[in-house]
Design goal:
Elements: H1 2-28, H2 39-64
Helix pairs in contact: 1-2
Length: 65
């Protein structure tokens, strides 16, 4: 369970970095990313992974008590 949590956390970091980089690239050069990648899907996946991490953290807290 701990390895799964670490992998999910790393994916969260990757998607966070991707969102920041893609957003900055769109500000500097409009439509360079949106032409190829739908940022809404990346944001939805990032949000879902964040929810999963919170659920796993809550379950870990209950198991330690």
């Amino acid at each position: 369970m701990d390895k799964t949590r670490i992998i999910i956390k790393e994916f969260f970091y990757i998607f966070t970095g991707a969102l920041v980089i893609f957003s900055l690239m769109e500000i500097i050069w409009p439509r360079i990313i949106i032409a190829y990648i739908n940022l809404n899907w990346i944001l939805i996946i990032w949000f879902f992974i964040g929810i999963v991490l919170l659920i796993l953290k809550e379950q870990k807290g209950k198991n330690e008590k």
